[in-house]
Amino acid sequence: MGKKSKVLKDEVFLQHPYLILLTLTMGFIIMDPFDLSPVGGHDFRPVKNDIASYQEVMENWHGDNLSRLGLGVPEFVDQVYGPESLEFDVVGQGPYAGLADGRVVRWMGENNGGWETFATVTRNWSEKLCARGVDSTTSKQWKHEPRCGRPLGLRFDKESGELYIADSYYGLMVVGPEGGLATPLATHVEGKPILFANDLDIHKNGSIFFTDTSKRYNRVMAVSGKLREMFDCRNHFFIMLEGESTGRLLRYDPPTRTAHVILEGLAFPNGVQISKDQSFLLYTETTNCRVMKYWLEGPRSGTTELVADLPGFPDNVRLNEKGQFWVAIDCCRTRAQEVLVHNPWLRNIYFRLPFPMRYLAKMMGTKMYSVISLFDEKGEIVDVLEDKKGVAMKLVSEVRETKGKLWIGTVAHNQIATLPYP
């Protein structure tokens, strides 16, 4: 009877050629033998993420019906290339910005030469190898980025005037007040390389807290080529697509010249900001769309807690003079994305479809735009500014509030935006 049943099932299967075609097609997609998908050629291992539900977050989110961020003024267009982090020195000069071509530059003023190169992160840097102007934020720079460097987080030590740099390839670095070639401080922790230094902040005791986004991936792909460029998938996208949680919060101690692991198992740890009273720090987890708190002092020292769940993907977080926190957010999550987040097996199929990443994102309903949000120490929303049409900035990486103005950076475009505030 069992043998007859099996024969009947086989006959039913053979009578439905579309079912056979679908099975073969799905098998071909999953195997991806020609590496045609955005994740082709990679050991793609998606996992389930610890992320708040879309509905819960959006019910509690304060939007900006006036789209006030869109009133920002694009500045220095095509003069700076992917200025992710912005900083001002001890006398208020600046801004300083880390660029996609591997330099840290300084604004000297319109009548003093404009932008000048302040620092580089490697002796490999040369104009011939690294300087691609407006193409620095495109795929034309990717294969050169590991050699030229990619300075991300910037912080001045207000006492010494030294500038500390988190470079995604060369680790934690420092350069003196006069600039020049930066000196490496931490390229390894506990004997293993720091693959993706991202952002940092300096404690009053001299310790430097910084993020290492992943132990598996650096910022851009290790292998370049026309096919990979066509599919527009840099390594930091794989971190998010997989949902992998190998990122760390690290601390560098100047007296011993050693780095230590403070937290691990983080999903794309990104921005870092120490509180005004130095009792805690905030860090963002980009993949999990949230801001977290790590206590540095008091009875909860060494513990973490949730500060805020976000509607999009946070980058850097920065303090204002009132002790409030500006978070730059690339918005927004979608319901379709949430289905993929909670079903790794489905993600494994979807991202093996032979289409560029931008098309797969559109099919999920993703329409990226910029949001910046101001939080108090308890994680309560103080203000939200949006730019849904991308007038001032399509992607944001950092917000600096100084002297009644917001300075807004971006890792992906060639400009800075400014906006009077409040």
From TrEMBL:
Please list every transmembrane segment annotated in the UniProt record, as residue ranges: 12-31
**Keywords on this record?**
Glycoprotein, Membrane, Signal, Transmembrane, Transmembrane helix, Vacuole
Record domain Strictosidine synthase conserved region: where? 198-298
GO MF annotations in UniProt: hydrolase activity
Q: Which domain of life is it from?
A: Eukaryota
InterPro entries named among the record's database cross-references:
6-blade_b-propeller_TolB-like, Strictosidine_synth_cons-reg
A GO cellular component annotation in the UniProt record:
endomembrane system
Extent of the signal sequence: none
Q: Does the keyword Membrane apply?
A: yes
Protein localization? Vacuole
Q: Which PANTHER family match?
A: PROTEIN STRICTOSIDINE SYNTHASE-LIKE 13, STRICTOSIDINE SYNTHASE-RELATED
Q: Which family does it belong to?
A: Belongs to the strictosidine synthase family.
What's the protein name? Strictosidine synthase conserved region domain-containing protein
